[in-house]
Specification:
71 residues; mainly alpha; 4 helices
């Protein structure tokens, strides 16, 4: 597998970490050198439980009610 595999793993990791850090997707697309943003989002970024959990917690107000749909 060697060096090519290691480079691809690093690219996927970098892209995922930058997306999770909140980098604008169009700038991330540009940095990654992708012609289409779908390549950046659908191939190079990967969901993680930790980040998904943190995003879900943003939806919950301090009183325990969700902040979506006016609920």
């Amino acid at each position: 597998l060697g060096d090519v595999y290691k480079r691809q793993v690093l690219r996927h990791t970098f892209c995922t970490n930058m997306a999770n850090a909140g980098m604008d997707v169009k700038n991330l697309q540009y940095i990654m050198g992708h012609a289409d943003v779908s390549m950046t989002l659908n191939v190079y970024t990967h969901a993680t439980y930790t980040h998904a959990s943190a995003q879900m917690l943003k939806l919950v107000n301090s009183d325990g009610k969700t902040s979506i749909c006016g609920a």
